[in-house]
Amino acid sequence: MTAILTADGLGVRLGDGRALVHGVDVELAAGERLGIIGESGSGKSLTALALLGLLAHPLTSFGSATIATGDGRLQIVGAAPRRLDRVRGRTISAVFQEPLASLDPLMRVGKQVAWPLAAHRGLRGDALRSAVVAALADVQLPDPERIARSFIHEISGGQRQRVAIALALAAGPSILIADEPTTALDVTVQAGIIELLQREVSDRGMTLIFISHDLPVVAQVADRVLVMRDGEQVELGATARLLRSPQHEYTAQLVAASRALDDFLPPAPAGATRASTDQGETR
């Protein structure tokens, strides 16, 4: 099966050539869910920005990162800004830790959600207004018509994150990057956002890249986990295998430090030992 996203030696460097991220190698199939785990400063968010083509000067990406689009494959590294603008939102989209990073405080919610619907799906007039309300209802916002008329300072933090998800999903992307989408939220709100993301990704058949420093949360969401440390990919493997039998010392430290991990760990197959024979990738 052709990968919907491929990274091959993907990295991020400063203007003086120093690499902040290097050696990210992964292929994702349609509908697959990848978790990226690592401590603060490990390069998780820089990797996400590189995949989105959103690195700001003086940062640049190197290596290769390609995504499948409606008219072939796009090489994100070095792509022209106009080409990236055409695929962001429609093919690949993102939800960030702080909703204010993607929401305009001076614009009503409905107008913000309307933009990708108009730009990528060509909706206008009554059809556009109906689609905006439907997009807000899809993310389980109460009274979506009222939310559409609101500014973001008039709604709660959890509601803002749901609006950010609605905005990211509005144009029907095939790939969603969720970069620490629950970190700034209360625990009870976090659970609702994770459940919402899982449902939307499943219902839409999307590929998900879920980034977090919280291994139990990643274990709950992801089919595979990519572990990063100091800007480098150190392990990649199936979630259950990686949790039961981590191959890299740092991964083992993360697993050992994660409390309540057993709540998310699938039971071992009959006769299996802790040293699973599943093949993983380490560096």
From TrEMBL:
Sorted alphabetically, the keyword list is:
ATP-binding, Cell inner membrane, Cell membrane, Membrane, Nucleotide-binding, Translocase, Transport
Q: Does the keyword tRNA processing apply?
A: no
Q: Where in the cell is it found?
A: Cell membrane
Q: How does it sit in the membrane?
A: Peripheral membrane protein
Pfam families attached to this UniProt entry: ABC_tran
What are the annotated GO cellular component locations?
plasma membrane
Output the superkingdom of the source species: Bacteria
Which family is annotated? Belongs to the ABC transporter superfamily.
Which Gene3D superfamilies does UniProt cross-reference here?
P-loop containing nucleotide triphosphate hydrolases (3.40.50.300)
KW Iron-sulfur (keyword) present: no
Q: Which organism is it from?
A: Microbacterium oleivorans
Question: Which PANTHER family does UniProt cross-reference here?
Answer: ATPASE AAA-TYPE CORE DOMAIN-CONTAINING PROTEIN, OLIGOPEPTIDE TRANSPORT ATP-BINDING PROTEIN APPD
Molecular-function GO terms, alphabetical: ATP binding; ATP hydrolysis activity
Using the record's annotation, list all stretches that form the ABC transporter domain: 5-255
Q: What is this protein called?
A: ABC transporter ATP-binding protein
